[in-house]
Design a protein that fits this description.
This protein is about 80% helix and about 0% strand. By secondary structure, the protein is mainly α. It folds into two domains: about 15-65 and about 170-195; about 70-165. The longest helix has about 50 residues, at about 15-60.
Length: about 200
């Protein structure tokens, strides 16, 4: 290169400038990686945990290991309640109890549409109480032979459905998942920090 060309060529960047920029770039990359680990790992773990919780709760509607679903049994109980209502509607002395069971059964129907397990449990508890009240009222009255037989049938249907719901294995599946997965590290940490709740039991 001629002297004139060397005079016009720009000076090379100082070595310190190159190394400083490289060092800063590495520090920046390390900071980004640290942020990704701090936020990305917990968020990913929380998402996986939430999906696992949803899978457990879905068994309320599909059944546990081939067994009947709690939601289906409660629908059967609702059908039995409707049958008892049809008998109660024939007797003026049972109008109050019949009306209450009709209201409480409607709550269960609403829960079925919303697919909220807590709502299911609360509505079912109300329906059980009002079903028992109407049953006891009708049994205290002088019923026709057919109505007495119908009351016996609907009571057996209702109690059978309730018993099946309580022994469907759903609560046991919730308890097992909570004990073996949700309450153990790291799920216990990520769940609490990021607002993931354990699966809902059917009380």
């Amino acid at each position: 290169m001629s002297a004139a060309a060397r005079a016009q060529a720009p000076d090379p960047a100082p070595r310190e400038g190159i190394m400083g920029g490289l060092f800063q770039s590495r520090r920046f990359a390390a900071a980004v990686l640290a942020l990704a680990l701090v936020f990305g790992v917990p968020l990913g773990s929380a998402r996986s945990l939430r999906l696992a919780v949803d899978k457990v709760e879905e068994q309320f509607f599909t059944g546990v290991e081939g067994r009947g679903a709690v939601a289906d049994y409660l629908e059967d109980a609702g059908d039995a309640a409707l049958g008892l209502i049809s008998v109660g509607a024939k007797y003026d002395a049972a109008v109050e109890e019949t009306g209450q069971l009709r209201v409480d059964r409607s709550f269960l129907m609403d829960a079925m549409e919303g697919r909220d397990i807590s709502f299911y449990a609360g509505a079912n508890a109300l329906m059980r109480d009002s079903f028992a009240a109407l049953r006891d009222k009708l049994l205290s009255l002088e019923l026709s032979e057919q109505d007495a037989a119908d009351v016996e049938y609907y009571v057996n249907q209702f109690e059978g459905a309730q018993g099946a719901a309580n022994h469907a294995g759903y609560n046991e599946a919730v308890e097992e998942f909570t004990e073996k997965t949700f309450d153990r590290f790291p799920a216990s940490l990520f769940g609490g920090l990021l607002g993931v709740n354990p699966p809902k039991k059917f009380q």
